[in-house]
Structures are given as C-alpha cells and as structure tokens.
Design goal:
Shape: globular
Radius of gyration: 20 Å
Distance between the termini: 48 Å
Number of helices: 4
Oligomer: single chain
Number of strands: 10
Length: 216
C-alpha cells in the first residue's frame, strides 16, 4: 500500500510538472479563425497573451466587419496586409490603408511572440503621430518574411526563436514595435501565393483579393 501511495505521489508530481511546462495559450483554449480567399484558406489561432487584440478581432469577425475587404497591400518577402474598411468595393487604383473602425487598441508587446512567418500582427500609424504604438482597430498583416542569420539576431532572442527565424523565416526588425496577436497554423503557402501577385506602385494587387473571416 505504501509503495502504491508513493507511486501516486510521484505520478501526480510528474503530471503537475508537465502541465506547468505547457505554454499559457494551450491549443484547446485558443480561439481559431479562418481567412477565406480565392487563393485558398488560412487557418489561425489568436494568442491569449494579447487579450485586447484577441477580443477586438473576435468582435469584428463576428460582426462581419472583414467580409468583402481586400488584402490591399502586399510586399513579397515581407507581408500581406488587409482590414481597411475603405477597401470594400474600392475602385481600381484607389489609395488604401488609412481606414479603420474609429478607434485604436493599446499595444500588447510580448517578447515571446515574434514576427515569424505566419504571424498575425496589428498594423498601426507611425511613431511620429503614434508614440505609444497603439494598434489600428482593424488593419492587420500576416508575415511572410525571409530566413534570417541567427548570429545576427542578438541576445534578446532565445535559442528556439533563433531556430525559428533561421528555418521558417520572418521579420525580426518588427519585434516589440508592432503587436503580434496570433498566427497562421495551416495555409502558409497561401501567404506565398498572395504575396507573389502583380501589384501597382502602391503595392495594391492589380486583381482584388477579397477576404471573409470566420471563427472556427
């Protein structure tokens, strides 16, 4: 009986240790979403470590805010951007990127959340007019990026983060300057397809790329 009791204690301790080792945002508790496009679908998750951005994104998705909007700015090797309400039914060649829902979201920087390929991040106005680096209320971008030399990343990155940047790629110069609040977990190839389309001098795709976003 004593041996059995000791086994239970050890087993319980091991299970608690394992649970403590899990990241705060476990997959089962994260909000899943799907971005539907003519190029295919991208499934992603929202991070619990950025609750204000998570809740705002969910609110907008459930209201249908994003449906029919465009990926209005795409830069191959960098990112694809959307979420401007002015892009809905926008005329060809129209300048886009200044629209929003009429409010911003406070920055929620977290050194554990990096701009790896597939990162979902909030766009924002420049530092000159936005010193607190508050996020746009609706505009977001999805990182494509490029593979990085880990030796050039510096001491602020963990070994795991350096491995991610050197194997998957990303845009590390944006870290701790723009809020990362989710990531694409399926459909990374769709990012590449959208980033490679023909575009005008403002980086707007010549052929409109519309989106619809749903909560899964």
């Amino acid at each position: 009986m004593k041996r059995f009791f000791l086994f239970l204690l050890i087993f319980s301790f091991m299970m608690n240790e394992k649970a403590d080792a899990q990241p705060k945002s476990s997959g089962s508790s994260q909000v899943h979403f799907v971005i539907h496009t003519d190029y295919g679908n991208m499934e992603g998750v929202l991070y619990n470590e950025t609750p204000q951005h998570r809740d705002n994104f969910v609110k907008l998705v459930k209201s249908g805010f994003f449906d029919g909007l465009l990926f209005h700015r795409v830069i191959e090797g960098f990112m694809i951007q959307g979420g401007d309400p002015d892009s809905k039914n926008a005329k060809p060649g129209a300048a886009l990127g200044a629209g929003g829902p009429g409010y911003t979201v406070p920055a929620e920087f977290n050194p554990s959340l990096i701009h790896k390929k597939g990162a979902l991040s909030a766009a924002r106005q420049a530092d000159q007019v936005n010193p607190k680096k508050a996020s746009s209320g609706s505009q977001f971008y999805i990182v494509q990026g490029k593979k990085q030399n880990p030796s050039a990343l510096g001491a602020n990155y963990t070994a795991d983060q350096k491995t991610i940047y050197s194997t998957i790629g990303g845009t590390p110069f944006l870290d701790m300057n723009y809020t990362v609040f989710g990531e694409i977990i399926q459909g990374l190839d769709i990012i590449d397809k959208i980033a490679a389309v023909q575009k005008d001098q403002r980086d707007r795709p010549l052929k409109d790329i519309k989106m619809t976003i749903t909560i899964k």
